Amino acid sequence: MSLSRLIAGFVRQHWPAYLAAGAMLAGVAFLGILVPRRIGAMIDGLATHTLSGSGLLLQLGELLLIGVAIYFLRVGWRLRLFAAAYLLGVQLRTRFYARLSLQGPAFYQKQRTGDLMALATNDIDAIEMAAGEAMLAGFDGTLTLVMVLGVMLLGVDWRLACIALLPFPLMALAFWRISSHIHTASTDSLKRFSALNGHVQETLSGVRALRALGLEQRSSQQFGELAGHAAKASLTAQVWEAAYEPAVGLTLTTATGLTLGLGGYLVWQGELTIGSLTAFSIYLGQLIWPMFAAGWVLSLIERGRAAYARLQPMLDAPLAVDDHGTIAQLPPGELVLDKVEYRYPGQAADAEAALKDISLRLKPGQTMGLVGPTGSGKSTLLRVLLRQLTPQHGTVRWGGHALDQYTLSALRSAISWVPQESFLFSASIADNIALAREHASRADVEHAASLAAIHDDILLFPQGYETEVGEKGITLSGGQRQRVAIARALLANNSLLLLDDALSAVDTGTETRILEHLEELRRAGHQSGAERSAIIASHRLSAVVNADLIIVLRDGRISESGSHDSLLAQDGWYASQWRYQQLEASLDAL
Ligand SMILES: Nc1ncnc2c1ncn2[C@@H]1O[C@H](COP(=O)(O)OP(=O)(O)OP(=O)(O)O)[C@@H](O)[C@H]1O
Questions:
Q1: Could you tell me if 390 and 320 are in contact, meaning their C-beta atoms sit under 8 angstroms apart?
Q2: Ligand 1 atom closest to 346 (CA)
Q3: How far apart are the CA of 207 and the centre of ligand 1, in A?
Q4: Are residues 187 and 68 in the same domain?
Q5: Same domain for 558 and 489?
Q6: 107 Cβ below 6 A of ligand 1
Q7: Ligand 1: does its nearest atom lie under 6 Å from the Cβ of 376?
Q8: Which residues face 500 on adjacent strands?
Q9: 8 A C-beta contact, residue 434 and residue 445
């Protein structure tokens, strides 16, 4: 969809606002047209001594009234139209945000957060301006142009009008050339701003790493360079925008010169009164606004087009995972993976797939351990279950249905996932935990925190549960962040819990307590008929020893599987890793 179609659709949707603004503008243009003729008549009346003192005062009063009416009408249309244009901004931002929230990891791998933020702010502002200011100025300018030209041609003197219009085609040509430069310069300027935004976002997120590595100076230097590039690109766009003004000035000066030449001759010949020539000159002056409006409109439209050309691909980007499932409730049932294979986009066809030939079953209420060397595919497998990734081969079924038969929201509200990097929002600890369940009571939140073995830590914080955690929980330790994220997942109490190395930053004692609580929850679920399953991916084998089934992944394949004891008996990777970790633990205990 082009920008013009987007705006046309929006105008249709909000036609009352645009109609009201248009009517007020027409009123302004009409009243504006009256002024020069009245001034011309006053001058002729004064020159021929036919205008009395009281008549002059009356006419001046009328002009004042017209001026006041124009003022209020101008305020009126601006308010009406801008209110509508801001709505377009809201609509676009909401659409953009909704699309972003549906996108999967593959999309975010290709897009920089700073770019997306620039699109949601700067670029949409430019589109908003094209739908508001540009529409207004375009309509106002065109209306004024048509009315002023009509009066000049039909109401004053058509010969003067024709000669005055001679330089205008040249101006149109100049405008066309300038606007194409503005388009290029605006695209560049928006891109540079995005890059600058990206740098700020990245450096602020990684500010601790930057400081630790002593890279502040290098980063500041990069920022300075990016800011310089952005300013230069913005200046180039401004320079081209400024080029409209001399083009308008030159055109008007030429038109005025031609008018005065021919007008003077006609006055001299007695074919035109001085009042008419004055009125014509004022009308000519009134063309300044339509000409500036044309330049202003063109530059706003080019900026809007450049911005929309950047935004549209994001709005139309295909979703990595479609949401065409229809089943809105997940029945309890077995989770079955059959010959699942997943290869990341961009991975070479001859490169090893991240998951190969994965077949396994998890009965309701069972706990499965997922272990294996780093990069063996544990996180990938969990993300397949969340439908963040869609396998190229094989099937994943839950409760007898393929995963994609469920709506994404049904699927995701049946799963609690604690990723490797737990994310905390800038809110209180209580709010961060309560995110998992709307209207959770404080008692529920505290219970979940106790299960995640973080309750006592929270009570030691200055404001307890009301302690604000900064962006990404900057005030909490890694282990505390992990446990707040686990508490959030446990509060949701969903059918399937996925822990992706979510206990890596807690000590083994705390890990044992949390795992015992999970086991209690599982038993309670079993007794109440609401089975709770869990998949625990971990580097530390102590986290999975009690699992009903342990899967060992190596290079994306299942290399071993069974209970802890049977895996020890197999004497493969698991057994040697277990011995190694046991030795390490006993050395640590010394
Ligand atoms: N977004 C991605 N694009 C391309 N390859 C990826 C991507 N994410 C992971 N991989 C690759 O897929 C393989 C499996 O990665 P995965 O993160 O699932 O392993 P893991 O077992 O969870 O590792 P770790 O224990 O270190 O977290 C690795 O070779 C990794 O490099």
A1: yes
A2: 4
A3: 25
A4: yes
A5: no
A6: no
A7: yes
A8: 537
A9: yes
